[in-house]
């Protein structure tokens, strides 16, 4: 239902922004466990889709790194630059040029650049973009066929567009995140934390102070969700039993409660095992063996106090997953760095591993 609705919205969005200088929404990408084919026990029931935004004519987007801290939790600002369109035409008409046409002419034609509408200073503002995007969805709703059979109610959210669809006794919640692609890669900066970023906490990691959770309105969070979804699609196309790895994930996420391991940790472990055990060995009769392979991989990671990020620095990443030039050849990021620095957390993690093995 969500995928079909997004297709309908995309067609209407293109017509809605055709003659404007607002961002241009692209085809939606389903992200998170619901679209990858597995859902953890603690799944919040929200179907998340990422809407890539392209700059309108006469504008360019430039993601700029804000935080030089942990690579897996970086934030960016999206700088908006005006570019010359004097030599470009659209539908046989010469485009207005925000660089060279006079302010008087722009005012007479009632044209405002993106810098004047959705930006704070020179940077694309998430909250302003969210309000505009919500209004775009609201005005588009009556023009999609689903409006005849479903009822839509918006949910409060300042950094995305979230709504509930209902039809009789059926209901589902959809969250439309919007983001900017980094170059031609599968890495995006997005308006709202994705499912993995929301659910990556663990009792083995020290809690952050409340002020660390504050996100500026011009801050966009880097996400690897699209690259990971693309990896799962790649695996499914080559595996003899295309859902076996998903069954493994579901088994473990059902028994994680109380152990301190997050579902995102298990997802990372399973993805690594999928690149080390040949996909031809993932048949139904080897289900139990693959479960023990996953447990053995986690045990080695705990002993070494090292679990490498699946996308960053992974030489086994399939070639069809594209990374920005700045990410190519980087050193692998250790997601278990905190265990190496905190002996008490490491002892607790080993105890939790024993509990999980018993289960």
Automatic annotation (TrEMBL):
This protein's record includes keyword Membrane: yes
Protein keywords: Membrane, Signal, Transmembrane, Transmembrane helix
Q: How does it sit in the membrane?
A: Single-pass type I membrane protein
Tell me which positions the record assigns to the signal sequence.
Answer: none
Location within or outside the cell: Membrane
Principal subcellular localization: membrane
Report the residue ranges that make up the Mab-21-like HhH/H2TH-like domain in this protein: 260-311
Please give the GO cellular component terms listed in this UniProt entry. Answer: membrane
Q: Which domain of life is it from?
A: Eukaryota
**Carries keyword Membrane?**
yes
Q: Which family does it belong to?
A: Belongs to the ITPRIP family.
Name the chain's protein.
Answer: IPIL1 protein
Give the organism, scientific name: Poecile atricapillus (Black-capped chickadee)
Gene for this chain: Itpripl1_5
